[in-house]
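Run folding on both entries below.
>entry_1
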Amino acid sequence: MTIFDTHRYISFLLDKHSLGYKSPEEIDLILHREQINEFRALLDDGRGGMAKGRKVEQVYTDDLNPFRVAGTTYNTNDYTTDNPFGTGPSGDVVLPPDCMHLITFYQKIDAKGTQGRRIEILNDGEIGDRMDSELIDSIAITPFGYGGQINGVTVAKTSERYKLFPNEPLALTVHYFREPLKPKYAYVIVGREVIFDQSQSQDLEWNEGATNRIIIRALASLGIHLQEPSLVQYFDAKTQSE
C-alpha cells in the first residue's frame, strides 16, 4: 500500500465523519507515531518493556523482518573513528542512532568466523549478582554485557551503549532492529492544485497486515474506530476498480 493510498483513505474517512482537515504533514506525523507504537507492541516482553539482547527471535514476528540489520562486524579493541559502530574510551559498544532494539551481540570464536555464541545482556539487577559471583572467572569463557549507565554516565538517548566483559578484545557481529523510516507524503503546489510527488515520498515499509494495523491505530487516534475487515474491503474494492 503506497503512502498516497494511505493518505487518500484517511482523508476520505476524516471527511466522511466531519472531523475536519488534516495536512499531509500531520497525517505523516500520526502514522509515524503509530508505527513506533506497533513496533513496541510487537516486542513487548509482557511487562511493558522490550527484552534487549534476550533471544528476541522467540518474541518477534515476521512483521519486523524489514527492519532487521544483521552481520556488521567489528572488534571491541578498535577505538578509531573507522569503527562502524564506534566505541567509548573503555571499549563500550555504541550502536548507531537508528538502532531501535538490540537483538544480540554474537561473538566469533574461530578464525574463520563460522562458529560463535550469543553474548547475554544482563539487566541492572542481574549485573551485580554476576560480578559478585565466585564463578566470575567464567566470564572469560562466557562473556556477558549490560547497558544503561557506563562508569556513572547516563547513556545518551540518541544511541545505545553497552559494556562487554571480559575487558579484552572480542570479535563481534551485531544484530538489531533499526527504526522504521518516517512516512512522507511529498507534494508540490501548482496554482491551487496539490500534486503528489512519488519520487520524493516514503511509503510505510511494513507488510500488509502490519500496515493495516498502523492505519487503524492512526484512525483511532483521530476519533475513527474501524475494524480491519472494513479497511481490507476498501482497498479490495479500489484494486478491482483500477
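>entry_2
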Amino acid sequence: MKYIYYAHPLKHYNTPAEQAALEAIGRKFDLPIINPNGAIDQNQSGAAAMRQCLDLVRKASILVFTELENGWIGRGVHDEIAEAKKHRIPVYLLRDTGEFYRTFDIKVHGISWIRYASLFNIGRKRSIREVLGL
C-alpha cells in the first residue's frame, strides 16, 4: 500500500497545527496519510514506539515532516528523516506557511531530545555536482 508518513513533534499532536498540516498534505498528495498519532500505541516505551514509527517509515512512499519553532527538529523526527533517506524515500519539509520543500540541510546539535538538530539551506538550489557529491 502506498502512503505518506507524517513525521512531527509530539508537542504538535492533537493541535490545530497538526490538523492544518494534515490538510495541507492531503491537498498536495493523492495518497493516504499515516499519522503516528493514532497509528501506533503511544502507551508503550519510547524506544518501542520509535521502532514502530521507523517500520512505518520504511514502508512509506513519501515522508513529510514539520519542524518545531525556528527550524529545530527533535530526535524522533530526525531519526524518521534519516530512515527515509536511507531507503531513498522522498522527504518533504512542510513549513507553517504551507509551503513544501525538498531541499534542506540538517545539522545535529544533540542539545536535547527536543532540540536535537536544526534545518538550514531550506529551498536552496543545488548544482548537479552537489547533488551527486562530486
